[in-house]
Amino acid sequence: xxxxxxxxxxxxxxxxxxxxxxxxxxxxxxxxxxxxxxxxxxxxxxxxxxxxxxxxxxxxxxxxxxxxxxxxxxxxxxxxxxxxxxxxxxxxxxxxxxxxxxxxxxxxxxxxxxxxxxxxxxxxxxxxxxxxxxxxxxxxxxxxxxxxxxxxxxxxxxxxxxxxxxxxxxxxxxxxxxxxxxxxxxxxxxxxxxxxxxxxxxxxxxxxxxxxxxxxxxxxxxxxxxxxxxxxxxxxxxxxxxxxxxxxxxxxxxxxxxxxxxxxxxxxxxxxxxxxxxxxxxxxxxxxxxxxxxxxxxxxxxxxxxxxxxxxxxxxxxxxxxxxxxxxxxxxxxxxxxxxxxxxxxxxxxxxxxxxxxxxxxxxxxxxxxxxxxxxxxxxxxxxxxxxxxxxxxxxxxxxxxxxxxxxxxxxxxxxxxxxxxxxxx
Length: 426
Fold this sequence. Notes:
Distance between the termini: 44 Å
Helix content: under 10%
Radius of gyration: 20 Å
Oligomer: single chain
Number of strands: 28
Largest sheet: 4 strands, antiparallel
Strand content: 35-45%
């Protein structure tokens, strides 16, 4: 089994988990008054996975899909799971358990549906090169009649570090032809602590074989460092974020655009953060129907607890608007939103903060626009106990219910808790 942890340094760890000090805050408060809208629908217990860091995906039928970074079989290399409504409760099915070999290990990216209906994702370790894989999962050909029916994994591309990038992370994106786009946190090259500053790549299929094209290799210069997501726009351009370097106050992260032309891609930095408007970008970007981009930062803003922002196209440039600066609440070490935001049909934004909130263990929030300003409403403040702590993202079903995961809390069989899946009803 490849030890993916050997590839990480302090820069990568911010993208994965909070400091021990942030988890050591003692709960001294009662449950929130709006707890009746909150329900834990699954608590992980090692055997079915632990430390889900990737967030959830929801299908049209309201089923939930996700990944755990660890747990599963005896080598604890991570899982992909599905949660299905059953009566008044939910049933978890293991779709795939990673073996830690050529199939990959430690999935830290969300699984997403491709245009062919398969699930796609990436894992930061394992593979034939030991530096991560992009994979797909396909359901059984016949109807499943048991509680757990494993899906079939296909490794589309194994990263080799030298020339290909390493540790793929963030959501994958697809164009109309079915090509796949993504980001690697490290490589290729030897800058950024000799591990490379990351890359944006494209995977193209021909004759059943997937090959990689490096769209851009980051240099730690004005182009950015440590990319964390890509989103494919209706205009055929790629949009995404670079985390920045938390160890360098002059590198707070940026939002980029890549424009294709003649077989190559040109990068435009559409916003460079200055810490006062945000610092460290981990979650992805979303578009509204008008083509405006929305995103969030983990830190920065007036209380150094993260921000939500909007980028609106205006001629040849993008207009940046800071929508909201989060307060650190009870957290000594605040983490703002770590996952992509969600927008409802009325234009309200929803998300989750990592360690902000009343008790310092994170919160699910709603941002409502009115008269040129955005109002924050806490939908739930986590207490760090059986309800979980360190929420990642939220998804919304057709009825306005919110679902999400926490990386910690819940079952104490894991250090700091194994994590939970939760539901918040309106």
